Amino acid sequence: MHRTRGRQPAGTRRAGLNRLPLAAAICFAVSSAAFAQDTGQAQAPTGTAAAEHKVATLSAVTVTAQKRTENLQKVPVSIQVLGTDQIEQLHIKNFDDYVKYLPSVSYQSAGPGFSEIYMRGVASGGDGNHSASRPSVGVYLDEQPVTTVTGPLDIHMYDIARVEVLAGPQGSLYGASAESGALRIITNKPDPSGFAANYSVGIDSVAHGGIGNTVEGMVNIPISKTAAIRLVGWHEHDAGYIDNKPGTRTYPVWGGTVSNARNCTSSSLLVCLPAAKKNYNDVDTNGARAALKVDLNDDWSVNGTFMGQYTRANGNIATDPAIGDLALTHFYPESTTDRWWQAALTVEGKIGNFDLTYAYAHLNRDNVEHNDYSDYSFWYDQLPYAYGNYIYDNSGALINPSQYIIGKDHYSVNSHELRIASPKEDRLRLVGGVFWEKSVHDIEQRYMINGFSDSLTIPGWPNTIWLTEQVRTDQDEAVFGELSYDFIPDTLTGTIGGRYFRADNSLGGYYGFSAGYYPGSSYGEAGCISPQPYRGAPCLDFDKNVKESGSLGKVNLTWNINPSKMIYVTRSEGYRPGGINRRGSLPPYKSDFLTNLEFGWKTTWFGNRLSFNGSVFEQKWKDFQFSILGANGLTEIKNANQARIRGLESQLNWAATYNLELGAGFAFYDAKLTANYCGFTDASGTPVTDCPGAEEAPKGTQLPVTPKFKGNLVARYTFDVGQNEAFIQGAVVHVGERKSDLRVFENSLTGNLAAYTTMDFSAGFQKGSWSVDMYVNNLFDKRGQLYKYAECAEAVCAAHGVVPQYPNGQVYTVTNVPRTVGLRFTQNF
After folding, report:
1. What's the 3-state SS for 481-532?
2. What value does the mean pLDDT take over residues 605-620?
3. In angstroms, rounded to a whole number, what is the distance separating the alpha carbons of residues 412 and 471?
4. Quick count: other Cβ atoms within 10 Å of Cβ 129?
């Protein structure tokens, strides 16, 4: 909850200072869970005895999770909230920073803007490929969806009002990509009531790495009594900490060696690719937001927002344990750029006493990737594959077979939502509307080999051994609504909700080799189904689409025991659309569905000094979509089988004293297969579960990525120094052990993700309109394992005992950022 702290009377300041050693000990001793709300104070009347002894309380948090403004404690949904104060106090700047304080959320990350998000254990893993399944968690910026297949936008977290996390299926109100939950980032809006501005500058140092910095600024300018503009801008430089160490690699078939050393001298059998560099994974982010709000009259208002961001990430965020801590050896330059902008319009008004809202958004996103892909070449050059025999130049001589990738992804997403809501004071209440969204995704990937023979390359694409040139379209239409009725006013409420949806998903284009390289192929140039060129590619290989329609339901019963305590029971459903495999010869994959049965509670105690919220639930996941790396390193998506997730989630916030506030959150999950995963489906696409002795994952196998326990705790102690204010704060995060892959054999090659615990510490001082604070994130420099992967099929690139240099195969690990020490100065006007 949002916290407002008044100045202490002079007679109480010395007591606050005397309690400082105790508070410091508490900050370091506490462990496990996060604020779902900030704490505030109830001010006693001036001049009374009570004013000398102020009492801490929790203030209200408003959310819009159910498409109307409500008190968090009155919403019968499991919701976690990070407010403005917490975002600033926890030094949250990006996705990685805030997700660690959300116990219900797990994720895999390949870099800024390339994260796969999972909630409540609904995770099968995956490689995040641009042609993989659609996400099972919907991410929204204000009213508009910002979810794409390669990951949601990694929005810089400045001038943000709150982050709302809705756990569990949100199918009735949010639809297709909110199967297991929804995450909403709510920005601060223009305020016509007065001028406001602030700025913040910071510098930080990363252990084993370089120096970073952040500059942010905001100005709110009233135009009139009914209109205002809000302008926000930011620059962030994140220091690198991964070393691309000098090294060599000898290919057995070609017989030559490549080196990434910068002082290398080429020869007939030595190819120099000077890519080695210290701290090479630095990131630069620049962005801005302009928002205009106009109150047309007492009933109608218009909000328009234009926001854009450009991120360039150099290097790779993974480490290769065979090379060393925070190190790898790659041979080609690596970088990603993520450039996006979104224009959004929200119109709000009244028709009679009904609230009407129209929300429109257009998102334009461009990703460009340059990736080293030489692991694929190296491992497939080993016996029995002898890949290098097929890589030669125009003279027929074998050449360096190592590959690199140049990939381009362009997204264009348009969405419209029109909804109406009856007065929330009515005994019978309705929220309903219509939704339409169309996402067009242009995919281009070139797998390159320098000096590759003209007779083998893709016609018109020099040095290209493989080309993907495809267009994917995902279109969704829906009618949705929820109807609530107070059986007993202010006490017992029933809600029914539903969504009728239609989805039309298509994928078509070219993928594969040239006819000269693979004349007998059923795809690529040899598998053309049309003689006409396709978007610069030789032809069209396939053009498929799937259409589906259906409905989702929700039933809820809420009992407000008294004004401060509420319990509820919910049955809700969510789904994720099916789609087309990038390898066009494979059949389409079907939708998967999640059914949730949940009991929850929201309570406050001791005169609103303590809040304790939570839920227990069981979810059944039917025919879930599972992505693997198949032949030629192509993503293949098949429906797996059935899974069951049981869990407990809880958040606790305590205004322990006027000075000390504690927040805790934790989640326990038991996520398992309830049928064998055999690795294939029947002709209709239904998963086969009867394969005795040949199961890739037997019944009872734990689902990957999600730990059995995740928790965090934050303790903040605020005290007066003269007429000014200071604080110290400690935050602890624990993430349990996780499987890296659903499949038993592949998981044995990549290994589990180890449990880890990290601690952040900060202290600061505020004087009038300015403040300065120092922070240390990951105080003990722990390597939290976030993701493990191999560059090609695990049975090849992660094989044990094949290459002496890599006795345990070549498996990369993405970790959290090493210890970071920072200093920040902020001023408000």
Report:
1. EEEEEEEECCCEEEEEEEEEEEEEEEEEEEEECCCCCCCCCCCHHHHCCECC
2. 94
3. 11
4. 19
Q: Rounded to whole angstroms, how far apart are CA atoms 532 and 438?
A: 27
- Token digits for 146? 């910002």
617 burial via Cβ count (<10 Å: 0-12, 13-18, 19+) = buried
pLDDT category of residue 128 using cuts at 50, 70 and 90 = low
Residues 6+ apart with CB under 8 A from 194: 220, 222
Q: Which residue, 522, 527, 547, is CA-closest to 539? A: 527
Q: How confident is the model at residue 11 (pLDDT cuts 50, 70, 90)?
A: very low
Architecture of domain 10-242+279-372+403-828: Beta Barrel (2.40)
Domain boundaries in the chain? 10-242+279-372+403-828
DSSP-derived 3-state class of residue 535: coil
More confident call, 570 vs 625: 570
User: Coil, helix or strand for 383?
Assistant: coil
Tally the residues of the chain: 829
Ramachandran area for residue 406 (φ above 0: left; ψ -120 to 50: alpha; else beta): beta
Is the N-terminal amide bond of 384 cis, ω within 30° of 0? Answer: yes
Measured between alpha carbons, how far is residue 461 from residues 206, 374, 512 in Å?
41, 20, 13
- Which residue in the block uniquely carries the two structure tokens 């360096």? 400
Q: Residue 377's closest CA among 265, 493, 250?
A: 250
Cα angle 429-434-439, degrees, rounded to a multiple of 5: 140
Q: What sign for the dihedral angle of Cα 552, 507, 789, 157? A: negative
